[in-house]
Amino acid sequence: MVFNPLNQSEIWLDFCNLTDINPWDPSISKFIKPEKDHMLNCIPKLFEHSKLINGQLFLYSNGTFKNDVEMGCEMRCLFVKDSWHLYYGSWITVKNGTKPECDVIEIQCEKEGTLYHRFWHAQVYRKSPIPPKPKPPEKYDVHIFLIDCVGQTQFIRSLPKTVHMLRENYDSIPFHHLNKVGLNSHPNGFGLLIGKMIEHIPRSPFSKGHTAQYSTATEACYTPLDDEQYIAFRYQDDGYVTMLTEDWPGGALNYPDCYGFYKPHVNHSMKPFHIHSEEQGLDANQLKGILYNDTCHEPHTYLCDYLKSFLKAYPDKPKFSITWIITLAHNPDPNSLSSTDDYFYQFFNDTRKDFENSFLFVMSDHGSRFGTMRETLMGEIEDNNPALFLSVPKPLRQNANLMQQLRTNSKELITHFDIYATLNELVQVSYFSFRKGIGKFFILTFFFEMA
């Protein structure tokens, strides 16, 4: 029998048999070798002469200099211009207690014309002071915490302590059947953050086909996104403070060489931290030495510290954030993620109170796409089934109807488009929208009965 794509009624298979997958399936046992924390016994090779603590720069001489003035340090601010470029503030002299009025700072120190210290620091700088007695906002916070290239079962297998923390202390609900909508981060990022499909799905024996919102993926790539329905714009329009942090110079929406945004698209961004390294011509080894290996840091730790700073900076305002950790699991090693289990366990333990009034999406865009394990059936399943755990604000966890509906929906087939729709509805939610007994008003995709 030959499939006829012109026959509108001829679909051989129009349903999915959703089954639970064993994260430790015997077929992949030979690939599973959990790793210890890479920074556990790390000894710094470079001395960090500067630290940014509570908004102030402090200098450390290591016994070489008499005082901070003698250290000869100066700093400048780095600002976002667009998705690919930044602009620079003026160099100013640094002494202990200097307060940078920006998010990303470059500092360098010279002795007799020789550069002996160079570093980047990041914080969330708030222009207006925090009120002495900040009144909690009437809206819930919404946060996306995304680790790129991680399947649902891989997340469970690699981060058991973190999963325990999320389940036990955040009442987080795993969504078992999130299906990716494209090959890599670019189409999945569009689905998640813009709610649009960039590639057509042709008719087949398994699908009636779907028409993308762009004529081609190339059109999507070379269309500026400043006038698009980017989800952070929706939150900004409703009074939220927005933040984006990624650990590479590009980003899901402008990968590999797409236009992206022509102007800053969030209130706070760590992007200059990573763009600057490329503009300065630093090769990978130099960058790893200065910021990572030789100072015992990893890329995701900078992002998590920036997120912590954001959570603390606005206790009186509703917050929306996107943390997109790219480099950690984006490699052929199926065990690299496991080395961070202790770190993420501690991170989510430390931020429990900060996330209490938040909808928190801990998730991925797609599963692992590389390595020999990807060539197995289990590897293919994990690639198609990215991670998703959702926790709701603590006051809502006692709402039995709400939580039961979430658990029911967690077993349904969903995509990043469903998350985008849910994010769009969450922006309208106040503390009073979810009072016990008004479940009939739930209009949110994840909180309403799915078709």
Task: Give me the secondary-structure topology.
Blueprint: E1 50-53, E2 56-59, E3 73-80, E4 86-88, E5 92-93, E6 104-111, E7 114-122, E8 141-147, H1 152-158, H2 160-169, E9 173-174, E10 178-179, H3 185-193, H4 217-221, H5 231-237, E11 241-246, E12 268-269, H6 271-279, H7 284-292, H8 299-313, E13 319-325, H9 341-350, E14 358-363, H10 377-384, E15 388-391, H11 400-409, E16 414-415, H12 416-426
Helix pairs in contact: 2-9, 3-12
How does this structure look, described?
This protein has 451 residues and is of the alpha/beta class. It folds into two domains: 50-122, no CATH class; 131-447, Alkaline Phosphatase, subunit A (3-Layer(aba) Sandwich), CATH 3.40.720.10. The protein contains twelve helices and 16 strands. It has a seven-stranded mixed β-sheet with strand order 9-15-14-8-13-11-12, sandwiched between helices. Helix 2 (160-169) packs parallel to helix 9. The longest helix is centred in the C-terminal third of the chain and has 15 residues, at 299-313. The two termini are 32 Å apart. Residues 435-443 have low confidence and may be disordered.
Features:
single chain, 451 residues, alpha/beta, Alkaline Phosphatase, subunit A, 2 domains, seven-stranded mixed beta sheet, five-stranded antiparallel beta sheet, 12 helices, 24% helix, Sulfatase N-terminal domain-containing protein, DUF229, Alkaline_phosphatase_core_sf
Brief overview, please?
InterPro entries: Alkaline_phosphatase_core_sf, DUF229. By secondary structure, this protein is of the alpha/beta class.
